[in-house]
């Protein structure tokens, strides 16, 4: 997939976030906590793909598809963009 296509997906996720939460203006430390939570979800998706028998929930559900890991990475990127947007709004 091309860079433009991936960035288009990130933009779409940003638009969904704004529709759900409205414009956000958090302190940098708060943005880092939000971003860390999203990275944790991506980590969990990757872990449950690689080690589906290690987690009780994963055992019943089975191996998570890498598409879920990818979806989480799009959310990570979108949150990072939201943090940059908020910082730029505050700085201007």
Can you give a write-up of this model?
The protein is an all-alpha fold and 92 residues long. The chain has one domain (3-91). Helices cover 80% and strands 0% of the residues. It has helices spanning 3-21, 28-50, 56-61, 66-91. Helix 1 packs across helix 4 and helix 2 runs antiparallel to helix 4. The model has no long low-confidence stretch (mean pLDDT 93). Residues 1-23 are annotated as: Disordered. Residues 1-19 have a biased composition (Basic and acidic residues).
Describe the structure concisely:
The protein contains 4 helices and no strands.
Question: What does the radius of gyration come to?
Answer: 15 Å
N→C terminal distance: 35 Å
Please summarize the sheet with the most strands: none
What is the count of DSSP helices, taking H or I runs of 4+ residues?
4
User: What integer is the average pLDDT?
Assistant: 93
Q: Helical amount among residues, as a percent range?
A: over 70%
Classify the secondary structure makeup into a structural class. mainly alpha
Tags for this entry?
mainly alpha; elongated; 92 residues; 4 helices
Helices and strands, with pairings:
Blueprint: H1 3-21, H2 28-50, H3 56-61, H4 66-91
Helix pairs in contact: 1-4, 2-4
């Amino acid at each position: 997939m091309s860079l433009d296509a991936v960035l288009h997906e990130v933009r779409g996720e940003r638009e969904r976030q704004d529709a759900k939460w409205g414009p956000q203006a958090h302190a940098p430390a708060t943005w880092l906590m939000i971003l860390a939570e999203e990275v944790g979800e991506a980590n969990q998706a990757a872990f449950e793909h690689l080690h589906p028998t290690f987690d009780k929930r994963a055992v019943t559900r089975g191996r998570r598809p890498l598409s879920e890991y990818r979806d989480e990475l799009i959310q990570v990127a979108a949150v990072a963009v939201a943090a940059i947007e908020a910082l730029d709004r505050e700085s201007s």
